[in-house]
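Late entry, evening session. Most of the bench is empty. Finally got around to the prediction I had been postponing all week. Sequence below, unchanged from the version circulated by S.P.
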Amino acid sequence: MTASTTPPEKVNDGFQPMPGSALRGYLMVIPAILYVAIYLLLLLLFALLIPPFVRKFEIPLIRGWGRGPLILFGIKIEVHGEEIRDTPGAKLLLFNHVNIFDLLVLAATWTKGSTIIYKQEFHKIPVMGRLMRFFRMISVDRSNHEKAVQSLNLAAQLITEKGYIVVMAPEGTRSTTGKLAAFKKGPFHLAIQTGVPIVPMVQRGSEKLSPGGTLIARSGRVRIDYLPAIPTVDWNRKQLSTHTHQVREQFLKYLEDGSN
């Protein structure tokens, strides 16, 4: 099987992010930063003092952290295909990584039984790193291949033994332009290792609301589309590049190609 070189036909669903004035973004950036920081400090305090409470209300607490700043900036999230994401069973949820606001969008749409594979650099933010470990999120050291493999093995264990949804960014880093960068192979090795389906999570709009990935964001809309699950049970490592290409093609129906 060879990968097709024909660009996929674009989906035209009429979505427009409708960015507003930058004035609100400048006025709200300090309140948003304070909200994020104070919320994290209080959440860590509760996690240390009453961990059963925090674990019980994990979903609304994580969503509250993400939604607060988005409300301050006037950003609304449109979610389509949520029933695909919420289909019972373990899965890999792959999202295109645009800018720092992805953290807020992911938190605001967090769902039960999820974990995320994130870069170890977040541990330089002491409170956030501590909380991410508390919530069983998985750090990956991209500079150390052996440790990176250990992180993927831990993710595989959570998938096979606990039925987790594992959230990953196949580009590996932010694009900032909204265009889709080349995919890394890690998520697809994990798919072959576990045989769980891949659900593409396509997000659009944030690249227009926060051009270049700054902390200033205009009001407007971000749209998330959960695309139909892609079975991986019959995948094999010999065709890894083909499988990677086929998944990326699903994203390219909605996004511009930024790999060139």
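Two things to note before I forget:
Residues 22-252 form a domain with the Glycerol-3-phosphate (1)-acyltransferase fold (CATH 3.40.1130).
Strands lie at 75-80, 91-95, 114-119, 138-140, 165-168, 198-204, 220-226.
Will write this up properly tomorrow.
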